[in-house]
């Protein structure tokens, strides 16, 4: 057994969930795990309550670590493997494993334990989903990832039953998707790296110092065209440290050097910061209320040939957008009206949008979607479900930055769930003003259950306070002042290497373009004497910058993005 460090809580807890086909995967995992990892392993295998389990004996033959069935209130120690007994659930409370009698079936055994890991152990958590049917583990993995832990999956080609890992993979939350053998090596390397270069304790989220955070946000703003400066620092710090650990960089300075030069890491960090958890009919009471009270009313108000317009902001991989589409489709069908519906589903994550646009989901969605709706709205091909064309034609998926502009107008229904909670108050209010602009008078806004309207409470009337469903009171628009990127902190002195900043002329030209032309619908070009492009200012809102003196495009080769025609040098 590994001797625990001075801080006895400073070790990883690795939760491993498996179902059908999981025994072989577990054997390969522990059979390839190097000796003496400074971590505790908790194995949750779906087992029949009617048969004696031989799991502890099976795994003990594969590893030198002590393997034992979990006893109630056992203290978790590194260097041990704990196996869930049949007919029990397990939760982590502080540092003890508590056995519970399951309520109903065992469908969420893995999810529930992962939730308790995320809550009690935070960043020092590794959650792994192996072979199995159903989708137990998916939501728990999301909770672990959002808490700064590490989410790993068995690769489908090595799994006997792919439903469990596939349902989690589609959300994009997995940090790695590997064979059991490679998962064992990855887990050991992560644990060894964390032991060698410790950062924070599992019970706290240490904010990254302002200078390094500013450097990281500047890199993303430049290369990924996204401003995270108004997001909560605790969330940013947690996700950045997460990437630092996964890339096995000894410190933030090393990680920043990687981020500056690696386009792949820029995209991975951007995706981590934008990560969204979703599934069909997530928070089912919300959808039941929309189905019975809201959507039929919206349809009833429309005249034949009119159009119902819905916006699903931050749609991630599309499950919520298709959920709304099913309810709208069915409500129109019941009304016997010739009404069209158009659902705009947007997100910043291009990868997530590609998944949404394909409309193909693993068979595990049968746990969330009723058999009647699966029959009505999906085609099943033996191992996955495909959205039918009749439903898919109602939706338009498009990239959109929610914090920059409303994007849409005259919407009857807008959903923006579990996005505001990651933003600082000023940005929250800006986004709410943009959503207010997008809504028709008396239209409906749906937020996440932990979100609030703040200063805009007087602009909406509450329909359902528990599930944060509101109705817009009036038609007048609210003032919207674009929020500039904020500086986290600019230190007076620093020995750290910093990225080059625009020179004074560069900044002056940028300010002139912004304030001279911000209210005018025009395209402005700045060129030098050789007709080389230095600045482009499109449609009074989007400034594309090229460093003065370092022009990269001849004006005669410029293609206007709206007209798709070459511009004349005249």
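Q: What amino acid sequence fits the structure above?
A:
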């Amino acid at each position: 057994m590994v001797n625990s460090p001075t801080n006895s809580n400073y070790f990883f807890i690795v939760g491993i969930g498996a179902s059908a086909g999981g025994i072989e995967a577990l054997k390969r995992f522990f059979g390839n795990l190097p000796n003496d990892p400074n971590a505790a392993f908790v194995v949750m295998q779906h087992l029949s309550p009617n048969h004696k389990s031989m799991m502890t004996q099976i795994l003990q033959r594969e590893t030198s670590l002590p393997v034992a069935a979990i006893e109630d209130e056992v203290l978790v120690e590194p260097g041990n493997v704990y196996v869930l007994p049949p007919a029990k659930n397990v939760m982590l409370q502080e540092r003890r494993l508590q056995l519970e009698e399951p309520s109903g079936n065992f469908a969420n055994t893995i999810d529930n334990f992962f939730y308790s890991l995320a809550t009690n152990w935070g960043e020092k958590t590794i959650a792994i989903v192996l072979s199995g049917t159903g989708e137990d583990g998916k939501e728990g993995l999301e909770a672990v990832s959002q808490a700064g832990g590490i989410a790993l999956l068995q690769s489908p080609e090595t799994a006997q039953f792919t439903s469990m890992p596939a349902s989690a993979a589609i959300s994009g939350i997995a940090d790695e998707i590997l064979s059991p053998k490679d998962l064992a090596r990855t887990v050991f390397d992560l644990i060894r790296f964390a032991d060698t270069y410790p950062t924070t304790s599992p019970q706290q989220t240490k904010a990254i110092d302002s200078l390094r955070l500013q450097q990281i946000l500047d890199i993303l703003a430049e290369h990924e065209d996204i401003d995270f400066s108004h997001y909560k620092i605790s969330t940013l710090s947690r996700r950045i440290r997460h990437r630092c650990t996964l890339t096995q960089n000894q410190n933030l300075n090393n990680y920043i050097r990687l981020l500056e030069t690696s386009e792949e890491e820029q995209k991975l960090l951007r995706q981590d910061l934008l990560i969204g958890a979703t599934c069909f009919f997530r928070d089912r009471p919300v959808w039941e209320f929309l189905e019975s009270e809201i959507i039929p009313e919206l349809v009833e108000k429309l005249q034949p040939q009119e159009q119902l317009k819905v916006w699903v902001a931050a749609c991630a991989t599309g499950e919520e957008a298709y959920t709304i589409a099913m309810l709208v489709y069915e409500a129109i069908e019941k009304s016997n009206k010739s009404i069209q519906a158009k659902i705009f589903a947007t997100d910043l994550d291009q990868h997530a949008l590609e998944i949404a646009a394909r409309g193909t989901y693993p068979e595990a969605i049968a746990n969330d979607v009723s058999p009647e709706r699966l029959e009505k709205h999906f085609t099943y091909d033996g191992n996955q479900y495909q959205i039918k064309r009749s439903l898919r034609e109602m939706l338009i998926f498009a990239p959109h930055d929610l914090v920059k502009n409303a994007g849409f107008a005259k919407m009857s229904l807008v959903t923006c769930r579990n996005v505001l909670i990651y933003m600082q108050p000023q940005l929250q209010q800006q986004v709410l003003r943009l959503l207010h602009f997008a809504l028709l008078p008396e239209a409906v806004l749906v937020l996440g259950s932990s979100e609030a309207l703040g200063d805009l409470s007087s602009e909406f009337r509450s329909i359902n306070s528990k599930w944060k469903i509101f109705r817009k009171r009036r038609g007048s628009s609210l003032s919207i002042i674009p929020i500039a990127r904020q500086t986290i902190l600019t230190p007076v002195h620093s020995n750290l290497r910093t990225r080059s900043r625009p020179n004074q002329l560069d900044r002056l030209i940028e300010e002139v373009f912004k304030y001279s032309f911000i209210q005018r619908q025009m395209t402005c070009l700045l060129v030098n004497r050789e007709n080389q492009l230095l600045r482009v200012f499109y449609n009074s809102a989007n400034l594309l910058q090229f460093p003065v003196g370092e022009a990269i495009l001849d004006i005669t080769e410029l293609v206007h993005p709206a007209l798709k025609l070459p511009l004349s040098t005249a």
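Q: And what stands out in the fold?
A: Residues 13 and 111 are 15 Å apart (CA to CA).
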